[in-house]
């Protein structure tokens, strides 16, 4: 796949990916953008090994999720992201972070796997099968994560 | 079910501002160009590394083969001590060819072993 073709593929999926990563990073825009760009570069470099062109988006999401895990392991992502979002200067992006503060706070309560499954399902619109492919788990595990995540979110919403 | 709808609505409202799409794609395009350059550089390094490994393999095989042939052609070199009488120096001198070929055979074998290890490491790195 050539660069122009790759860019076309990226254009179609980048917004969904960045939105997913932004929520996964608890509203930390810089971290989410870093991960998104790193994932896209990794995907571009590994493009020769990618054969199932129809599943490009799933493949890219998998790379992005693994990159997120790498960042988390390296200690680049902290739990204090919400506090940081509150302290952002008063521009549009900070207002944006503030607007979704409740959502980020609710997601912050969920364990990572449940949060990932919920976001991939509701924000990116993936099926259970695709989520299992992205996270590397079984479909049964994803169903359980979704169910537990929904229950916890319901409890938060009812408060 | 009502609550599920509430969750769906919660995420449906989640539309954060991601900035100008075209500008983002332009930026990504530049990054990919840089990544492509880095990839080409890495491929060139890999090619050079492979050529070097082949050279080591050829050198190792030749050295090993020459050593074996010489041993077979001059079997007396295997047991020179039986034919040597006199000083320690003379005995040592008589041993030198054997030592040299033993050393050559060792170096040759080491080269081949090293090459096999390098190839295995290289293949594993490439598969990642």
The description of the largest β-sheet of chain A is: none
Largest interface: A-B, 30 and 23 residues
Enumerate how many helices of chain A there are, as a single number. Answer: 9
What is the alpha-carbon Rg of chain A in Å? 16 Å
**Quick check: average pLDDT of chain B?**
76
Euclidean distance between termini CA atoms of chain B = 44 Å
Helix content bin of chain A: over 70%
Number of extended strands of chain A: 0
Order of helices and strands of chain A: HHHHHHHHH
What would you call the quaternary organization?
A: heterodimer
Class by SSE composition of chain B: mainly alpha
Describe the structure in brief.
Chain A is mostly helical. In chain A, 75% of the residues lie in helices and 0% in strands.
Describe the structure.
Chain A is an all-alpha fold. Chain A is built from nine helices and no strands. Chain A has helices at residues 3-24, 29-45, 56-73, 81-86, 92-99, 101-109, 112-122, 128-135, 139-158. Chain A has one domain: Up-down Bundle (Butyryl-CoA Dehydrogenase, subunit A, domain 3), CATH 1.20.140. The longest helix of chain A is centred in the first third of the chain and has 22 residues, at 3-24. Chain A is 75% helix and 0% strand. In chain B, helix 2 (21-73) runs antiparallel to helix 3. Chain B has one domain (2-127). Chain B is 81% helix and 0% strand. Chain B is rod-shaped, with a radius of gyration of 32 Å. Chain B starts with a helix and ends with a helix. The longest helix of chain B has 53 residues, at 21-73. Chain A binds chain B through residues 3, 6-7, 10-11, 14-15, 18-19, 22-23, 37, 40-41, 44-45, 92-93, 96-97, 100, 103, 106, 122-123, 150, 153-154, 157-158, and chain B through 3-4, 6-8, 10-11, 14-18, 21, 24-25, 28-29, 31-33, 35-36, 39.
What does the secondary structure layout of this molecule look like, with pairings?
The complex is a heterodimer of chains A (159) and B (128).
Chain A: H1 3-24, H2 29-45, H3 56-73, H4 81-86, H5 92-99, H6 101-109, H7 112-122, H8 128-135, H9 139-158
Helix pairs in contact in A: 1-2, 1-3, 2-3, 3-8, 7-9, 8-9
Chain B: H1 2-12, H2 21-73, H3 88-127
Helix pairs in contact in B: 2-3
